[in-house]
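STRUCTURE:
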């Protein structure tokens, strides 16, 4: 978390792990890693200006760290829409939904992948570095 709220983040994650363990009786860290891997995108689309008036959408491969961060952010974003009051229950239930395959995160991942596949022809139109 930002702005020095590490203790709060650790407490939320600890309670989320306890919630996952109570719900499944399995190792919570393994469930967390599986959920993040399942929710993480491989590519993203980026808009690049190709001429004065035209911009094209270009798929961009993500590193593993970028991919995992995006997956965690998507899980947190979709957990905010859940009806539970406590954040650890919302995040835990969203992770369980990702593992079950019924989460909005997976729909978002499929949409991003479909957009990247649809615009893969634009890979040759990337902005090339200018050498001076």
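SEQUENCE:
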């Amino acid at each position: 978390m930002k702005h020095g709220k590490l203790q709060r983040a650790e407490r939320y994650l600890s309670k989320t792990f306890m919630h996952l363990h109570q719900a499944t009786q399995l190792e919570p860290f393994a469930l967390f890693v599986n959920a993040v891997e399942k929710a993480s995108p491989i590519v993203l689309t980026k808009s690049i200006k190709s001429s004065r008036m035209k911009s094209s959408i270009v798929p961009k491969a993500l590193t593993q760290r970028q991919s995992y961060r995006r997956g965690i952010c998507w899980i947190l974003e979709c957990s905010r829409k859940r009806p539970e009051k406590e954040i650890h229950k919302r995040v835990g239930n969203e992770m369980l939904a990702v593992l079950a395959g019924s989460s909005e995160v997976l729909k978002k991942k499929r949409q991003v992948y479909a957009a990247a596949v649809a615009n893969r022809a634009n890979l040759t139109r990337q902005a090339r570095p200018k050498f001076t």
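REMARK: Strands lie at 43-49, 55-61.
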